[in-house]
Amino acid sequence: MKQILFTLILLLPTLCFGQNASPHLHDLRMRVAQNPADTTVRLEYAYQLAIANELDQAMQNYETILLQDPDNVSAAEGILWVLQSRGSYEQSIARAQSFLLKQAQSSAIAAYLAYGYSKTDRHLASLNSYKKADELAETPGQTDIAQNGLLWAYIYLHNYPAAQRLLKPRQHSEDSAARQILEARHVTMNLDFHSDYKDLNGIGLSASLTTTHATLSAKAEELILSGKRFREQYGLSLSLANSFAKAGASHSILRGIDKRIYPASTSAASISGILYWRNLEINPMLAAAWGKFQRLDTQQADIGLKILSDKWLIAYWLSNMYVDQEIVGSDSSKTLHSLQAGYKVFTNTRLQAYLFLGNQAWWLSPYQVIYDEYDANDKAIALSLCQKMSDRIYAMVYHQIGFFENEAQHSSSLNLSYSF
User: At 9, is the secondary structure helix, strand, or coil?
Assistant: First the structure.
């Protein structure tokens, strides 16, 4: 009786919509009704239903196969295909993770998991899963899917040299979009406003040109003190990158009305690594900086480490400085610590906190800010909110509370960025 009822239920769509069903689907429906335990036929039936965009029925049949055969990889792949066709990416991620507990050697399931991560802006997790899919690939088709996913993961992570390395041996027509991105020249403009809410205000403008392996940047900044022009800064920087590291150099010229300090100049060089481990990106960093002011010179050495996931980041820098004063016997050295922590509170919104310890006079910060003053903060705390407004526009609001001789000093900045 149950067998007859199951057959009638399965035949119901055919009875109601039989004239619209394709002959092949009609035949498969009859064969499944006649032998519900035949997973091979049901697999083909579910596949044809999915092709016909009958996703609910396809899902029901794939789920039935898993009940009959929990280790059926094809059914698991079919379920992930249907979920992602529906746009149910979070659900597909959860199901793929559960499937991989049983089917740890499935390249296809790992690729579905990676695609789900990519569609939910978790590109480091996507990169890691595509690497697994590539390692597990048993057919040229699986290898191609995994490497195409890796290509786009590197692009989303802005590691253009790694993407270029993958693209070179590939000659697929579907790679044209990736090739266009990697061959393009990306220009970014930044406009910055800042104020200490008292008598110091500033405006800055910068531009950068980025290619696959290099970025050239220029900036100009003007500080206004009590309504009068106080200091101007002009700078150039160049960075070169490959798949595993980035090296950069910069030089700035400063001019101002304080003859004890200006004219002045600073130069810096840095190198950072690009490492991927599981769902993390790890950037060890080394840097050096030299400053030449009217009454003193500075030498600075930095070491740092940044660790990022798709949701959070944490970074630490240690700076050692030597200040060579004009007055004999007044030279000094000092150590500064910088800590940054960030969390993605929404898909396009990141909240970040900062802590700076140590006297900041004459210091070049990890963010390339020059503290060209005698009376600088001894410590500071800050918060920033970064918002992606569109594919081209970013905004960041930053507020800092600095402490000098136990007196709090507030300052804020607004940065707007446009890419094209």
Answer: helix
CA distance 87 to 84: 5
| The one-letter amino acid at 330 | S
- Asked if 92 and 109 touch (Cβ cutoff 8 Å), the reply is no
The two three-digit tokens of residue 262, written as one number: 């200006």
The token pair that represents 359 in the structure block = 């006297």
pLDDT for the residue 254: 97
Interacting residues of 186 by C-beta distance below 8 A, sequence separation 6+: 209, 210, 211, 419, 420
pLDDT of residue 10: 34
Query: Who wins on pLDDT, 408 or 21?
Result: 408
Q: Are 127 and 280 in contact (CB under 8 A)?
A: no
- Say what the pTM is: 0.87
> With bands split at pLDDT 50, 70 and 90, how would you rate the model's confidence at 410?
very high
For the chain, give the mean pLDDT. 90
- Say which residue the tokens 């079919």 belong to: 78
Pairwise CA distance, residues 415 & 419, whole Å: 13
Q: Which domains does the chain carry?
A: 2-183 (1.25.40.10), 186-419 (2.40.160.40)
What residues contact 135, with CB distance under 8 A and at least 6 apart?
A: none
Count CB atoms within 10 A of the CB of residue 185: 9
Per-residue pLDDT tens digits for 59-74: 998 999 999 989 899 9
pLDDT of residue 277: 96
Distance CA 78, CA 27 (A): 20
**How confident is the model at residue 175, as a pLDDT?**
75
- List 334's β-bridge partners, or say none: 321
**Lookup: tokens for 98:** 């559960």
Specify the 3-state DSSP secondary structure of 372. coil
Please check whether residue 113 is in contact with residue 91, taking contact to mean a CB–CB distance below 8 angstroms. no
Q: What is the 3-state secondary structure (H, E, C) of 136-161?
A: HCCCHHHHHHHHHHHHHHHHHCCCHH
**H-assigned helices in 247-296:** none
Read off the pLDDT of residues 167-203 as tens digits, 9 standing for 90 and up: 877 666 667 888 888 888 999 999 999 999 999 999 9
Residues 116 and 212: their CA atoms lie apart, in Å, by 27
Q: Which residues make Cβ contacts (< 8 Å) with residue 113, sequence separation at least 6?
A: 92, 93, 96, 97, 100, 129
Mean pLDDT of 17-32: 60
| DSSP-derived 3-state class of residue 184 | coil
The closest alpha carbon to 363, from 296, 312, 420, belongs to 296
